């Protein structure tokens, strides 16, 4: 009888212990701060709560788990007790599997707990997983996008084309709601606007309210403008309009469940960002998974690293344009509305234009990758691409000067990159401020008596006022530099032609000294641009030639004003530099850019 009682006690004790234990494999969760950190198993016993975890990361990057990590159940926090597989507070690198497995042990929690939060301390960048389900395979706190918002996203094509954008200043109102938002998720919202008028990037910020909503006014300068919307969880572009309201709804649960690296609970890709209001048709369709996949697959880093290695500039151009054509053809198969098809094509052309204008970098990067040369290593055996006016016909071909390009989020970058076209046409070499610049300062009436003496001295000694003796001495110096470069460097056929031209100017009595100096500097710079010689090497070589400084002045500056010469330059530097830039702009750059874009005139804002 005693044995029977003992057996029953053991059985019921075992049942009691089992009832206090729980194992959950690959638990679902509400939202995660990082997609590459997952919980593979949760073990709850009377002694502890164990989280079996994995982080996927490159062997080049380390991970670290803080000793302040805790799990949260309701308002209660349970601080980590120990770890297996890693050491807390220590940087850990993965092996070639790109995975680091570890187990974190916490105090025991009630096995009937419905959900917990994993918080790797309270720092902004720390790993966090909210709403880990312990009793259900599905989310018990699912918050879905309102049905009428989802319905509005499925618009019928009206067959209309995009409106032609125009310059118009005003503020767009951007409102939104993050579904399944938690107060400790808040790192705010940043919106970046590239201003094509003044050539700057502007930043606007706001915080998300406790209920997940936000509101932000954003100044714009065109009737349709793509802005970058950045949060802790995702970054993407959206189209806004001044004087109009756009609303955004973010399904954070769908976003996290489809981006997680845990294949056991990963959900299929679906749209998780929805819009209503101004430009909703374009914004909704551009963020469809199939559209995003198509756009991201046209110009991948893998292609731009492995497939372009060894190409000439024109081969690279043909390759990029070919990939662009493939991308536009792929877009045509997605059933997009006419406006969105047109908008997506504009964005793809903007991307292609960006990569074409960055040919120098991508071709060199491909060569370095193929030859296992990091960017600090000398570039040996590389033949720099010849990027000339024929190559830059792309500016006209890609429609950079078309008003529809204002829709493109890359428009600002591409306009700025056109300055490299001028650089490749001939390196821009601005001389010292001309006499006219100093005369403008003199006429302005802003100079003190001593500054007036300095300005008159500098005007008299400007290059165009040099004496015949000084010009002859400088031409001799420039000729000696050209000859030294010819004798010291390995010249190509093109270099020899350039050297002959530079030497001819040096020896010609009719040549202007400004043209002589600029031609020599451009001849020298070509060796650095082609990566055959460094600027440091060339400068050191040229320093061997001595210029007769005794002839460098037409007049002398009074000794009392010498000490104030540098302060004068510092004080009026901006005005003098602006005059130089405007002179170069009007003499050469405007005409060159006008020719590139196929326009009879180019207007520049100053």
Any overview of this molecule?
- The protein is of the alpha+beta class and 606 residues long.
- The chain folds into four domains: 22-133, Immunoglobulin-like, CATH 2.60.40; 147-280, Carboxypeptidase-like, regulatory domain (Immunoglobulin-like); 297-423, no CATH class; 435-596, no CATH class.
- Helices cover 40% and strands 19% of the residues.
- It is built from 20 helices and 20 strands.
- The protein has helices spanning 2-19, 147-153, 252-259, 280-286, 289-296, 301-307, 313-332, 338-357, 359-370, 394-397, 411-417, 419-425, 435-444, 449-460, 468-488, 493-507, 513-529, 535-542, 559-562, 565-597; strands spanning 22-25, 31-32, 37-44, 49-56, 62-63, 70-73, 76-79, 82-84, 92-93, 99-106, 115-119, 128-133, 167-179, 189-195, 200-206, 213-222, 225-230, 235-240, 245-251, 273-277.
- Strands 1-3-4-10-8 form a five-stranded antiparallel β-sheet, with no helix packed on it. It has a five-stranded antiparallel β-sheet with strand order 2-12-11-6-7. The chain has a four-stranded mixed β-sheet with strand order 16-13-19-20.
- Helix 4 packs across helix 8, helix 6 (301-307) crosses helix 9 (359-370) and helix 15 runs parallel beside helix 17.
- It is elongated, with a radius of gyration of 33 Å.
- The mean pLDDT is 87.
- It comes from Bacteroides graminisolvens DSM 19988 = JCM 15093.
- This is Thiol:disulfide interchange protein tlpA.
């Amino acid at each position: 009888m005693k044995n029977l009682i003992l057996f029953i006690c053991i059985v019921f004790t075992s049942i009691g212990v089992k009832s206090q234990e729980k194992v959950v494999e690959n638990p679902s969760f509400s939202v995660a701060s990082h997609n590459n950190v997952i919980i593979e198993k949760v073990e709850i016993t009377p002694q502890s709560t164990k989280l079996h975890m994995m982080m996927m990361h490159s062997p080049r990057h380390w991970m670290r788990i803080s000793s302040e990590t805790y799990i949260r159940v309701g308002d209660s926090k349970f601080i980590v007790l120990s770890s297996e597989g890693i050491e807390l507070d220590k940087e850990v690198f993965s092996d070639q599997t790109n995975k680091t497995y570890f187990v974190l042990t916490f105090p025991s929690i009630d096995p009937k707990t419905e959900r917990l939060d994993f918080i790797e301390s309270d720092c902004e960048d720390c790993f966090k997983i909210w709403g880990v389900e312990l009793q259900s395979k599905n989310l018990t706190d699912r918050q879905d996008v309102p049905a009428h918002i989802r319905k509005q996203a499925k618009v019928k094509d009206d067959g209309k084309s995009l409106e032609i954008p125009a310059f118009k200043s005003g503020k767009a109102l951007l409102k939104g709601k993050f579904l399944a938002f938690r107060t400790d998720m808040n790192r705010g919202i940043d919106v970046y606007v590239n201003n094509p008028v003044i050539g700057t990037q502007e930043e606007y910020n706001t915080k998300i309210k406790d209920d997940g909503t936000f509101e932000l006014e954003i100044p714009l300068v065109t009737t349709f403008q793509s802005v970058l919307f950045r949060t802790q969880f995702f970054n993407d572009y959206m189209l806004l309009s001044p004087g109009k309201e756009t609303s955004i709804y973010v399904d954070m649960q769908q976003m996290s469940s489809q981006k997680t690296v845990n294949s056991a609970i990963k959900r299929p890709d679906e749209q998780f960002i929805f819009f209503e209001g101004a430009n909703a048709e374009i914004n909704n369709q551009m963020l469809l998974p199939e559209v995003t996949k198509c756009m991201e697959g046209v110009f991948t880093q893998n292609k731009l690293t492995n497939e372009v290695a060894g190409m000439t500039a024109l081969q690279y151009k043909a390759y990029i344009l070919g990939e662009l054509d493939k991308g536009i053809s792929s877009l045509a198969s997605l059933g997009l509305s006419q406006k969105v098809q047109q908008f997506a094509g504009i964005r793809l052309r903007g991307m292609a234009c960006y990569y074409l204008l960055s040919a120098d970098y991508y071709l060199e990067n491909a060569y370095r990758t193929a030859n296992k040369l990091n960017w600090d290593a000398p570039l040996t055996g590389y033949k720099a691409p010849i990027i000339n006016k024929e190559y830059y016909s792309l500016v006209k071909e890609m429609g950079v000067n078309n008003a529809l390009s204002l829709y493109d989020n890359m428009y600002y970058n591409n306009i700025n990159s056109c300055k490299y076209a001028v650089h490749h046409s001939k390196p821009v070499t601005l001389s010292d401020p001309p006499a006219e610049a100093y005369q403008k300062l003199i006429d302005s009436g802003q100079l003190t008596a001593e500054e007036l003496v300095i300005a008159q001295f500098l005007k008299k000694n400007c290059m165009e006022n040099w004496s015949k003796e000084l010009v002859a001495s400088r031409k001799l110096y420039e000729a000696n530099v050209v000859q030294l470069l010819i004798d010291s460097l390995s010249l190509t056929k093109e270099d020899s032609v350039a050297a002959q031209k530079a030497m001819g100017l040096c020896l010609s009595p009719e040549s202007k000294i400004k043209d002589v100096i600029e031609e020599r500097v451009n001849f020298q710079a070509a060796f650095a641009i082609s990566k055959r010689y460094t600027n440091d090497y060339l400068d050191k070589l040229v320093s061997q030639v001595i210029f007769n400084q005794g002839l460098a002045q037409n007049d002398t500056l009074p000794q009392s004003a010498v000490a104030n010469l540098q302060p004068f330059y510092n004080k009026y530097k901006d005005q003098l530099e602006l005059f130089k830039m405007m002179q170069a702009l009007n003499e050469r750059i405007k005409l060159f850019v006008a020719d590139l874009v196929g326009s009879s005139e180019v207007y520049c804002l100053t």
